[in-house]
Amino acid sequence: MNSVLIADDDFISLEVLKAMLSSYECQIVTAGDGEEALEKAQSCTPSLIILDYEMPKLNGAEVCEKLRTQEAFIHTPIIALTGHQSSNELNACREAGMNHTLHKPVSPDALDEVMQQYL
User: Fold this and answer.
1) Which of 43, 59, 50, 61 is nearest to 16 (CA)?
2) Alpha-carbon distance 43 to 113, whole Å?
3) Exposure winner among 8, 34, 38, 86, fewest CB in 10 A?
């Protein structure tokens, strides 16, 4: 079974994404900050990772950069969640090695497109 790691420090956003993913046959793992996301990714090796850009301890781009240095995550799809559409954030996500960006609030159609493309 595929697993999806969702990391977001906003509990409501996390719960909304979990609910949106509940129709997919996948195990959902959550994290509330960047360090926890890194730990959980390493312990469960998810099939897809969704990282909020702005999180405490490590932001999403920093988590992605650290994961991309590890063999297990070189080809894992990593998706950025961002509440802003600033070119700085988008560039940081791209440079970190993220595969795709979703803008908050995430629409079910946008999430479905990502799930279909990467899982």
Assistant:
1) 50
2) 27
3) 86
CA-to-CA distance for 8 and 15, rounded, in angstroms?
10
pTM: 0.96
pLDDT tens-digit map of 38-97: 999 999 999 999 999 999 999 999 999 999 999 999 999 999 999 887 888 889 999 999
What's the chain's length in residues?
A: 119
How, if at all, do strands 100-103 and 48-52 pair? unpaired
Parse the chain into domains and list their residue ranges: 2-118
- The CATH code of the domain at 2-118 is 3.40.50.2300
